[in-house]
Write a structure and sequence with these properties.
The structure is a single chain. By secondary structure, the protein is an alpha+beta fold. Among the domains are: 1-146, Beta Polymerase, domain 2 (2-Layer Sandwich), CATH 3.30.460.10; 147-232, Hydrophobic Seed Protein, CATH 1.10.110; 380-423, no CATH class. Helix content is 54%, strand content 12%. It has helices at residues 13-24, 34-41, 56-62, 111-116, 140-146, 155-161, 164-176, 182-191, 200-211, 216-225, 229-232, 234-242, 244-256, 266-278, 283-296, 301-313, 325-332, 337-351, 356-372, 380-385, 392-406, 413-424; strands spanning 2-4, 29-32, 49-52, 66-70, 75-79, 85-90, 92-98, 102-108, 125-128, 133-136, 148-149, 179-180. It has an eight-stranded mixed β-sheet with strand order 1-10-9-2-3-6-5-4. The chain is elongated and about 90 Å long. Bound molecules: adenosine-5'-triphosphate (ATP) and magnesium ion. Magnesium ion is lined by residues 34, 47.
Length: 426
């Protein structure tokens, strides 16, 4: 069952150190999960996770810096000397799952039981640093070679235990371009409704990880095929029924994102798939609707703001030719505007293909940036120095000076003061 793999595993010294300290204290310890899988896949490793026979109490005694993540589940985070955080989890067995998401009992156990409670065969590989061998109890290595995501044991039972695994299967399948094994796939389709029992936060985290893994279109199509999509995004499902054509355009827009590998924000993708749904509302209501959705999906405030901004402002590219210059530049000044330009490119593609507004904006953007980055020429203090009394008119005056500066009609502070004297001081 322990297999030697002819492929060097570059375990960083601080991770090595943690394993060694556990051995020295008399415990078993292995690298497990994503890091072993990704090492064998020849991919970059994100985090190193350790599974051990040491209990949380043991772990606390061995390492000076430990953060508790879930003591009852035996999950602790050890902070290495260089600040790297490594999850160190006690071998455990989970049983009697209640409500499709929480085990009612967790017992610390052996490596074999620990392997059986994991979700997919490719995620249940353990690496022993001492012998440089891999423990593969469920033919995960074969599945890795064949590019297959397969539930460990009986798929229906496993999804019944924890329904989040339904989406995790999609995440791994799309990220690695693996297929989902037939029985696992049938079980997902059959039990897709169970995803509704899972907390919004856990679903959100998986959905975010799916979107930022750069195969958004494949993921959406797979979620639909597995009947998960409608359970996660009911509002979109309704919009799709109403307008099938529009949805196909959205999918092809998602496809265009693929080469754009530095787009790390999952909100971008969410906004794109929600657009057909939100276009049903008048433009000035879209932001409000988006905020309500963001709240339901439990996005952060910052994410909610970006979501609302994108779906509302993308419509304005159609008005750029009739906007006053100052209004246009002020619109372009928004911190999210560069993202909006990328967003609108896809929106236009999925709507009517009209890119004229975007092309115009892109052309003037460098000049606009120079202008909207200028500091205000005058402030309220300057107006007071002119003998004016602070009041509501101040905002009007300062805005009007700012407009003219943006439009290049006022070139210096002196000109600005001159203008104020002439127009506002009697
Ligand atoms: P990634 O590189 O995306 O982080 P990962 O495999 O490390 O991939 P995590 O979500 O970080 O994925 O989980 C770490 C490991 O814990 C998994 O490889 C799997 O063995 C186990 N695991 C995580 N969530 C579940 C779950 N819901 N059910 C069963 N096992 C799970
Ligand atoms: Mg991980």
């Amino acid at each position: 069952m322990w297999i030697r793999i002819n492929q060097p595993f570059a375990v960083p010294p601080e991770v090595r150190n943690i394993l060694t300290k556990l051995y020295d204290a008399g415990f078993e310890a292995y690298l497990v999960g994503g890091c072993v899988r990704d090492w064998i896949r020849g991919d970059q490793i994100k985090d190193f996770d350790v599974a051990t026979s040491a209990t949380p109490e043991n772990i606390e005694k061995i390492f000076p810096k430990v953060i508790e993540i879930g003591r009852a589940f035996g999950v602790m985070k050890v902070i290495a000397e260089n600040g790297r955080e490594i999850e160190v989890a006690t071998f455990r067995k989970e049983s009697n799952y209640k409500d499709h998401r929480h085990p009612s009992k967790v017992e610390f156990s052996s490596i074999l039981e620990d392997a059986s409670r994991r979700d997919f065969t490719v995620n249940a590989l353990y690496y022993d640093l001492k012998t440089a061998q891999v423990l593969d109890s469920f033919e995960g290595l074969t599945d890795l070679k064949n590019k297959v995501i397969r539930a460990i044991g009986n798929p229906e039972e496993r999804f019944n235990e924890d329904a989040l695994r339904l989406i995790r299967a999609v995440r791994f399948a799309t990220r690695f371009r693996f297929t989902i094994e037939a029985n696992t796939e049938m079980a997902i389709q059959k039990l897709s409704h169970l995803i509704r029992k899972v907390s919004v936060e856990r679903i959100r985290d998986e959905v975010e990880r799916i979107f930022v893994s750069h195969h958004a279109k494949e993921a959406v199509v797979l979620l639909q095929h597995l009947k998960l999509f409608d359970c996660i995004f009911p509002e979109i499902a309704v919009a799709i029924l109403e307008k099938k054509k529009t949805w196909e355009l959205t999918l092809s827009a998602l496809d265009h994102l693929k080469p754009d590998s530095n787009l790390e924000d999952s909100v971008f993708y969410l906004a794109l798939i929600y657009l057909p749904t939100l276009r049903k509302y008048p433009i000035d209501q879209r932001a409000g609707q988006a905020l309500a959705i963001a709240e339901r999906l439990k996005l952060s405030n910052e994410q909610g703001k970006l979501f609302a901004y994108l779906v509302q402002e993308t419509a304005k590219f159609r008005d750029v030719f009739s906007m006053r210059e100052a209004t246009l530049y002020r619109w372009m000044k928004h911190e999210f505007f560069p993202i909006l330009m990328r967003f609108h490119a896809l929106d236009a593609l999925s709507f009517d293909g009209n890119q004229a507004g975007l092309e115009f904006v892109k052309r003037i953007y460098p000049e606009a940036k120079k202008r909207f980055e200028l500091k205000p020429m005058i402030t309220g203090d300057d107006l007071v120095k002119l003998g004016m009394h602070p009041g509501r008119q101040f905002t009007e005056i300062l805005t009007s000076v700012d407009d003219l500066m943006l439009e290049g009609k006022l070139k210096s502070k002196d000109e600005a003061l001159e203008y104020v004297l002439h127009h506002f001081v009697k």
